[in-house]
Amino acid sequence: MQSTNLFIIAGLGNPGPRYQWTRHNAGFLFLDRLANLENVTITRKAFSSLAGELDYKGKRLVLIKPQTFMNLSGRGVAQALQFYKLPVSRLLVVHDELDLPFGSIRLKQGGGHGGHNGLRSIIGQIGKNDFTRLRIGIGKPLHGDTADYVLGNIPPEEMENLAGVLDRGVEMLEMFLEEGVQKAMSIFNSRDCPG
Is the pLDDT of residue 195 over 70? Predict the structure, then answer.
């Protein structure tokens, strides 16, 4: 079933309306934006996720939004990789990133989980950490609890700029698919991306 043109794009978040517009759902919001731009839906139940498929720039993308809550995200990602018999080089995980200011987006290949429970779950489930991540900056709280911050709603002033931020992520995805992760990182990661 493996194809050289097949990729899994996993956006991380928590299911349900309570979490829809929270910072922690940046991965879901990215996939929703991509699906909206390309006029596809992510509604099929598969891989403990909501799934959709997209022909994009000559590639076949399987879009998944794990529905197990963030801490168990790896279950759906592992199921999808196993079903399509894909190596982790064909996986792109989209997630929120506390260590980047709002408006910044970076590609990263490999690394630890950095305290992100979704990444921790994926690394634990697939036994590897050398997959590519598309990190969407959400900034850090000036004070207070990090958990409250990531599960808080995106404030109005950031919501105004969110579509533009996500669109830059779509540009990065396109470059990643066409030119590979190293080229995409060299071009996009040096850009200063203010919100």
Answer: no
